[in-house]
Amino acid sequence: MNGGVVELRQLRYFATVAEELHFGRAAERLHIVQPAVSQQVRRLERELGVELLERTTRSVSLTEAGQRFLPHARAVLAAADRAVDSVREFRPSGALVRLGTSEGLGDRLEALLRAFAQLAPSASLELVHAPTTQRLQRVRDGSLDATIVRGSWPASGLDFTPLWTDEVWVALPDSHPLAASDVVSFASLAPLPLRLSSPERNRPLADLVLSCCREAGFEPVLGKEFTTAQDTLGTLGFGRPHWTVFYRAHAKLLPVPGVVFRPLRDPSPRMPAYLATPADRRLTPELVALIEAARAVEAG
């Protein structure tokens, strides 16, 4: 060993891959993305100084070291599960899930809460709103059980489980000629200033929109920074022509005088949403129910 620490999640990921002999199926069982499984198993192998799995483009199999290590990994995991089970009776019925949320969830949040109530009727949700970086830190320190985030954020100490993908729409003055289109092409927005959140505030969205502009062949003229939805839409409807973006689920709840929302094409931006949870803890039944509820909403 290299003097570091082997984590329970690494053992769990390895044992699941060993059972499935397939990284994709293992990720589905673990409710996380496949790259996270591959990364943690690689870290475990580096810590142990041996290869546990033989990987080819077509198959995954246990090495001799992996076969020897697997029963010990399972024993450690079983001991950890027994430790959790030993205090489960002291856990209050109707568990509380402290969930971080953000602006712009729109009608998805209502649908998610409704689906979760059906899947986990004895549980309750406490919704906590804060900037993304603060919510992620609170998941790390245990003051939040999980948080919903959009896009990629620093993953230290966290697992990210895919929930859904959001369409990103353009918001325009209803007096602008582009407002007459059912779908707006990115290239047609080039002459207008763009009002966008700063990368420090929302880097995934800023990166997505700027990359779409460049794919459409132009570098956007940046206007005043996006502040709040109310203030930004107020100036959009009655100020000088410019544009900004909103998630479709949020836009559907924002009938604002003087503003229209339209889908985008060439390209059509999409933003993935994830549930961030502590990497060193198993998902509770309530969090599994929350993930299932989110995916049920996504499936329609």
What do you see in this structure?
It is a single chain. With 300 residues, this protein is α/β, with parallel strands linked by helices. The chain has 2 domains: 8-88, Winged helix-like DNA-binding domain superfamily/Winged helix DNA-binding domain (Arc Repressor Mutant, subunit A), CATH 1.10.10; 92-300, D-Maltodextrin-Binding Protein, domain 2. Helix content is 43%, strand content 21%. It is built from 10 helices and 13 strands. Helix 1 (8-20) packs across helix 3 (34-48), helix 1 (8-20) crosses helix 4 and helix 2 packs across helix 3. The longest helix is centred in the first third of the chain and has 25 residues, at 64-88. The N and C termini lie far apart (48 Å). The model has no long low-confidence stretch (mean pLDDT 87).
Secondary structure elements and their pairing?
Blueprint: H1 8-20, H2 23-30, H3 34-48, E1 53-55, E2 60-62, H4 64-88, E3 96-101, H5 107-119, E4 124-129, H6 132-141, E5 146-150, E6 158-173, E7 184-185, E8 193-194, H7 199-215, E9 221-222, H8 229-238, E10 244-247, H9 248-251, E11 259-262, E12 264-265, E13 270-278, H10 285-299
Parallel strand pairs: 3-4, 3-5, 7-12, 8-9
Antiparallel strand pairs: 1-2, 5-13, 6-10, 6-11, 6-13
Helix pairs in contact: 1-2, 1-3, 1-4, 2-3, 5-10
